[in-house]
Amino acid sequence: MRFGVLGPLAVWTGDGRPVRVPEVKVRALLADLLAHDGGPVSADRLAEDLWGDDPPGNPVNTLQTKVSQLRRALGDGRLVAFEAAGYVLRATDVDAARFAALLDRARATADLRAKAALLSDALALWRGPAYADFRDEGFVRTAATRLEEQRLTALEEQAEVRLELGEHGRLADELGELVAAHPLRERLRAAHLRALYRSGRQAEALAGYDELRRLLTDELGLDPGPELAALHQAMLRQDPSLAPPRPPTNLPAPLTGLIGREQAVAEVGALLGSARLVTLTGPGGVGKTRLALAVADLAAGDFPDGVWLVELAGASGATATVAEVVAAELGVRDDTATGSRPGVRPAGLADRLADALRGRRLLLVLDNCEHVIEQVAELVDLLLGAAPDLRVLTTGQESLAIPGETLYVVPPLGLPAPGADPREAASVRLFVARAAAAAPGFVLDAASAPAVAAICRRLDGLPLALELAAARVRALGVRAVADRLDDRFHLLAVSGRGRPARQQTLRAVIDWSWDQLTEQQRLILLRPAVHPGGCTLEAAEAVCAGPGLDVAHLLHQLVARSMVETSGGSRYRLLESIAAYCLERLPHDDPAFQRRDLHYTELAEQARPHLHGPAQRRWLDRLDTEAPNLRATLEHTTDRALALRLVEALAWYWYLRGRHREGRASFAAAMALPGARSPRARAWEAGFAMLTGDGTDLLERSRTAARGLDTRDSRSRWFLALAHLSFGDAATAAGLLTEALTGFRADGDRWGEAAALAGRAKQAMFQGDHALAERSGTESLKIFDDLGDGWGRLQASDMLGYLAEITGDYERAARLHREGLRGAEDLRLWAYASYRLSSLGRLALLTGDLDGSRELHERGLRLAAEQSNNFAEEFARVGLGLVARRAGDLDAAERLFQQSLAWNRRLEADYGVPFYGVTLLLAELGFIAEQRGDTTTARSLHLEGLAAARESGDPRAIALAQEGLAGVAAAEGAYEEAATLLGEAAALRQSVGAPLPAGERGDVDRIAAAVRAAAGGSLD
Questions:
Q1: Where in the numbering of this chain does the OmpR/PhoB-type domain appear (predicted)?
Q2: Do 858 and 816 share a structural domain?
Q3: Can you give the CATH number for the domain in which 321 is found?
Q4: Which terminus of the chain is more exposed, N or C, with fewer CB under 10 A?
Q5: Dihedral pair phi/psi, residue 42, rounded to 5°
């Protein structure tokens, strides 16, 4: 029977099964007997210990009952015996006795490792405070206190042994909690201070001494003892004797600092603390070796038997086995007789290595394992099984794939984020440091930052490639280095002297990895290089097809070898340098290129119908992901039929994403191929040209393209109408929309019908027909809702929101624009989101929230600028001008309006028609001139605006010009003329069902007030 008091009271059978001792008094009886270490305890003493001042009626009989119950629980009546001096517990196996015996053995041994092991075994017996469930009872207090003191002493002895073994790193933190619980124990404190000091935490060590000195003075009126005082003085003078014993090592001293790997060093160090085998993987040049060396150097204090680096790049079956290389580095000799026989490998060397490492606390770093991976895996598995205190850190391009391995994929250094300070990126910090070393005087400034960022991105943040590139800065300058990365293998071919041959050039780095691949792996690696944006497994299979090729399995092997990257196993990509290497090896006429072109053309055609309906977002996202591959296909293919298929399939995608220039250029390129003829393509190219303003005679080209269309090609006509509406050419758009709407309805094309109705609503708005705009917009919105088309809902609701704003229903307008903003953000249609932000800004302006309006317009302006959308940018800028004038900042308002007017004038010159924004801008500038007292300039501006408004045919624009002229007349004292003009403007607004809302009456009310004052308070 075994008994435990080092924690809650416990009893076990000889084979370890717990024995239940029921009832508190029976357990208390057992604890009392155990506390006397096998000595007799009188019945009177036991009775007093169990019941104190409240004994039962017959204590002796009751005690006998409890003794009987204890004997039954223990299952052996002989264990509790009654002798002349009292009751005795004949326990031969008590954990407290085992603890004391282990302490005695530890103190008797001189071997530090054996001592540490014995102390660890002794302390492992503790399950909690001694006699934990009875520690408040007086009868065990003396025994519990004695045991606790022994435990603390054992912990102090263990700490001192560990310090001698060089384990100060972890010990510094482990002792912290113990010192906090026992702050006055000087021996414990001394061990903690030494551990802190040796761990480089000298300030904490000195603070710990000051804390102890203060506690001793305050609580005991004493000073620290002489040993502790001497330790304090030694720390103050940084006595070399306090330095930790440096474990033996062959780690090379680093020649340069490790940059950008702070987090990785901490993460790998933590893994090495909990796992016995850690493998660093990643592509060649990512910095696996440097990271391993940094981690190993920091961890050296935890391995008193040393940290040993074994470089395996030169190991092979023909020269030396892995076991031989490791044995030679560790100094393990091979004395077998077979070693002298030519051609016969020494037998049992791995086993002798295992014997040599058994019992040693050592870190083994095996570098560059990929080409001898099977040998390494076999040896490491054997060594870890034989040597429980061994830790192994390996580097290679794939894992060892043995039990117990923890894998850490070393990532490239962080790249500069768009819009962020490039100096914050680890890749930039490394490049700048190495470039400054190679070219003294080089600094990262505003002029060099874009080139440095481009270098870091194009080299994928690979440290070795960045260092090779940085070495060229002195000869070429940073901009030339960036410009020459298309020929990176020549550029980075002569910069790596001082490194191993396999790392002296970028090509050599990849050659080393290439040489490790099988023929099938090489074939599969080459062909995904034709996908600059990475590819799905489906795309890889389409391009890599071949007899006997399991593409998925081979890709998995390449991922494991760090030659291919994967995102969740669903997408594969090559680092740019590896892709460039593969494209050099891939013949220009390889069928992979044609297979890729066909695959992405079919994908675009598959996506095309889904861009009009509920799956719009999902397919937009998918095409976004494949955009680099789609561009590569467009740039490569010379098949005119395939090119036309592709651009026509992608046309609506380009429009939705606001990539109008890309759309125009792609259609132009396809049409330039020999024999390419497509009226539809010509129409879409003309429409995109209008949206971007690129080219000459745009209106005539658009009209010519429309005349060449098939009568049933309603969508191309509608797209041309959309382009005309983008700058207010309602007259041309009206005819195209009528034809398109008729065709859509004849074909039963509900999406086309809804799109044409949305266009008609916009056309009607320009022409002042608000009733038609309301009907068309409402019908369009209903159809788009039924179809689940998010873009369509944006179009229809935009016009309805604008109509609500015109009629003064700001609540409805705000609701529609907020819904539109959410829809645009959900689809990531950022140009539309900009418009909605500015529209909400207009509503804030009309309701008097100038600060809110300014913020919304500024957000809209930033978003438009990011998308290079000049129209959305202009809409936001005009809104900021309106805010400035409302706020009384006439100078800022004038500057913004003049900037916008100049832009609109350029559009008029380019397109040859009046632009719809001109009338508003002329009116606003006229009001500013009038408010400043310059009536001559004001009249000229308003008359020009009136002429433009009459040409456009918009009644509201005409009314605005008349209101401006009324202001001029009032300022010049022509109050009767002013009253007449105000009346005509009001009637004109009323005729189209859009009387001026309260939020827009600021100028009219101001002018009317002046007229009333002059007329004696009346204005008819």
A1: 1-91
A2: no
A3: 3.40.50.300
A4: C
A5: -65, 155
Query: Furthest-apart CA pair in the chain: how many Å?
Result: 134
Q: Are residues 881 and 779 in the same domain?
A: no
Last residue of a domain, one of 850, 883, 907: 907
Let me know whether 373 and 484 are in one domain: no
- Three-state DSSP string of 496-524: CCCCCHHHCCHHHHHHHHHCCCCHHHHHH
Structure-token pair, residue 710: 């098939």
What are the angstrom distances between the C-alpha of 581 and each of 464, 512, 635?
A: 16, 12, 20
Closest alpha carbon to 573 in 629, 535, 630, 530 = 535
Distance between CA atoms of 224 and 216, rounded to whole angstroms?
7
Say what the pLDDT of residue 570 is.
79
Calpha distance 882→179 (Å, rounded): 69
**Is 323 inside any structural domain?**
yes
DSSP string, 794-840: HHHHHHHHHHHHHTT-HHHHHHHHHHHHHHHHHHT-HHHHHHHHHHH
Residue 414, token pair as written in the block: 């962080």
CA 523 to chain centre: 33
- The pTM of this model reads 0.66
Amino acid 168 reads: H
The verdict on 299 and 333 lying in the same domain is: yes
Whether 276 contacts 391, CB under 8 Å: yes
Does any domain span residue 455? yes
Say if 288 falls within a structural domain: yes
Q: Which two tokens stand for residue 290?
A: 């440097």
In contact, 432 and 444? CB cutoff 8 Å: yes
Say whether both 979 and 1019 belong to one domain: yes
Query: CA-to-CA distance for 572 and 579, rounded, in angstroms?
Result: 12
Q: How many domains does the chain have?
A: 6
CA distance 76 to 71: 6
CA distances from 228 to 128, 169, 185, 189, 234 (A): 30, 21, 11, 8, 10
Please indicate, yes or no, whether residues 922 and 875 belong to a single structural domain of this protein.
no
Residue with tokens 């030519």: 342
At 506, list the tokens.
């970028």
Among 372, 387, 409, the domain boundary falls at: 409
Segments of the chain scoring below 50 in pLDDT: 336-347, 496
DSSP assignment of 325-387, as one string?
HHHHHHT-----GGGGSTT-PPTTHHHHHHHHHTT--EEEEEE--GGGHHHHHHHHHHHHHH-
Query: Do 855 and 959 reside in the same domain of the chain?
Result: no
In a domain, 552, yes or no: yes
Decide: residue 694, CB within 10 A, 0-12 exposed, 13-18 middle, 19+ buried: middle
Same domain membership, residue 385 and residue 307: yes
Sorted by sequence, the CB contacts under 8 Å of residue 72 that are 6+ apart come out as none
Q: Check if the beta carbon of residue 726 is closer than 8 Å to that of residue 691.
A: yes
Cβ(923)–Cβ(961) under 8 Å?
A: yes
User: CATH number, domain at 937?
Assistant: 1.25.40.10
pLDDT confidence of residue 836: 95
